[in-house]
Amino acid sequence: MAPASPIEDYAAIGDGHTVALVARTGSIDWLCMPRFDSPSCFARLLGDPDDSHWSLTVTDAEATVERQYVDDTNVLETTWTTPSGRVRVTDFMPIRDRRADIVRRVEGLSGSVSLRHELVIRFDYGRVRPWVHRMTAFDDEVIVAVAGPDKVVLGGPRLPRSVVDGRHEDEFEVSAGDSLDFTLTWLPSHRDVPQPLDIDHRLELTRAIQRKWAIDCEYDGPFRGPVLRSLLTLHGLTHEDTGGIVAAPTTSLPEDFGGERNWDYRYSWLRDAALTVEAVVGTKSADRAAPWRDWLLRAVAGDPEDLQVMYTVDGGRHLPEQELDHLTGYAGSRPVRIGNAAVDQRQTDVVGEVIHALATARNAGLEETPDTWSLQRKLVDQLAETWQEPDHGIWEIRGPKRHFTHSQVMVWVAFDRMVDAVERHGLDGPVDRWREIRDEVRDQIMQKGVDAARGCFTQHYDTTEVDASLLLMSTVGFVAGDDPLMLATIEAVEHDLLRDGLVLRYRTDTGVDGLSGDEHPFLACSFWLVAAYARAGRVDDAQRLMERLVGLCNDVGLLSEEYDVGAHRMAGNFPQAYSHLTLVQAARALHAVTGADLAR
Less Cβ crowding at N or C end of the chain, within 10 Å? Predict the structure, then answer.
């Protein structure tokens, strides 16, 4: 069956621990409780229209809908206009205490509007049907759903009375001046139903905290609005307690509709998290990097040989990949996966990304500690012994290991930043050895990672193919933006990887990734091209591409992982940290070369 809504029709609300996806229809179709990487209680996104969800929507088919986030926060307002009246629903997740809540405030603005209320609860990705019953708590009737470790409580002034095969349903009228607050609360099943929320207080507190994050933004360059929304999105993907940053709050939204390229992104990749820190530090206080740095110390503690490319949000190491056969998949895209087998891959570039992020924070003023410096030394000591081994690369290739050029460039970055730490900040380390390795890596890349015929860098040492990750070589300082090798690499990417003006990661028909099917342009790669254009002096090209990419954001400013240019729709997991952090980096690259506020 068709999914509940197109990917671009969703907005995200969160509480610093998890995220719910709310469709334009008013249906919450995806929610994992209590954490990003917990099993879902709403899974309609990956199933069919009858799967678990919580919907509050108007019944009039002629209704029009407008949405917005309120005052630079992640509080969502949806306004429906019908021939008979207007109604507004405010959705938010209050800042967390010992429970997790979603609040849906329904307000009549004019006339009278009929709303339909539906609730279908299924725990464990839809596999577990709970015991559902009504009870009175604190003088109010509530609906309680319990199964195993999970308990969900629905409260509100008008609870669904009709129950059909586990679906709670109701229809009611909302007139001008009416205000109805509905709450859905998750808590461990052994705990009692909690007291009702002080909703006005929690709404104002949530808005104040999120507004402060926006107010503290120090970026005042081009595309400030999209940059600010991206920073708020990245903030929403950061676990408030642990500092872990997830790549996306979803799993298995397909890169290839109907195909097998469906992955679970609800974990903290060292690479993505490091790049997020770099993006945030460039627009806010360096202290913003401290929680992630503390998470990193805990997650990678121990032998550097045991370093993983990703972890759970609390630094856990076990992410076994499984397939959920009972879910039909988004747009019939199967398998639906939870966990991620890439956790066992070798991705050499990750150490470089981590060292670079820590260097960025250090250069911005975040004080180094003995523990953080010791960690970096141990990571590069291990890298010094293993850097010449092939790996799976930045794209988590499931084919044979290769000597990917981008991976080797990030090795160079790791040792270059360690040399800089000694020379600029006076930190202690074997700087002569680090310089020697850095220079050896560079020489090897220049010998083996260049296509002599085209004069450009190559995807890996055994091919003349190019890869979008090569666009980062000027960003990280390996070559200048206008170096002939960089200019030729940009031209090769334009020739080989552009699809209707947007950038593919690589050509899948080479078979390098070991997977069937194709994929769509990867939005982060297109933002990389913006930055590469800017550094190459092609400012007009950079501006035009940036305007187009920002125009791909949905009505509330969110981006997915990829974009289907033929069907004009989003693809891949959503909202995607990589897309938003590279939007920030691209805007900063434009600002660096223009020094002025351009459009938007």
Answer: N
- pLDDT, tens digit, for every residue of 171-210? 999 999 999 999 999 999 999 999 999 999 999 999 999 9
**Where in the chain are the domains?**
7-191, 213-594
**What pLDDT is stored for residue 598 in this prediction?**
42
pLDDT at 2 over 50: no
> 3-state SS of the chain: helix, strand, coil percent to 5?
35, 25, 40
What's the gap between Cα 248 and its chain centre?
A: 3
Q: Are 410 and 475 in contact (CB under 8 A)?
A: no
Find all residues with CB under 8 Å of 596, minimum gap 6, and list them. Answer: 222
Q: What is the 3-state secondary structure (H, E, C) of 489-554?
A: HHHHHHHHHEECCEECCCCHHHCCCCCCCCCCCEHHHHHHHHHHHHHHCCHHHHHHHHHHHHCCCC
Domains 7-191 and 213-594 agree in fold? no
**CB-count exposure of residue 483 (10 Å: 0-12, 13-18, 19+):** middle
- Whether the pLDDT of residue 599 is over 50: the answer is no
Pick the CATH number of 7-191 from 3.30.310.50, 2.60.40.10, 2.70.98.10, 2.40.50.100: 2.70.98.10
Q: Which amino acid is at 27?
A: S
**H or E segment to which residue 484 belongs:** helix 484-497
All residues at 6 or more sequence positions from 457 whose CB lies less than 8 Å from its CB, including other chains: 405, 445, 449, 450, 451, 466, 470, 473, 485, 489
Give the number of other Cβ atoms within 10 Å of residue 520's Cβ.
Answer: 26
Residue 272 near residue 245, CB atoms below 8 Å: yes
Q: Could you please report the per-residue DSSP string of 377-409?
A: HHHHHHHHHHTTS-B-TTTT-SS--B-BHHHHH
Element (H, E) at 21: strand 19-23
- Which CATH architecture group holds 213-594? Alpha/alpha barrel (1.50)
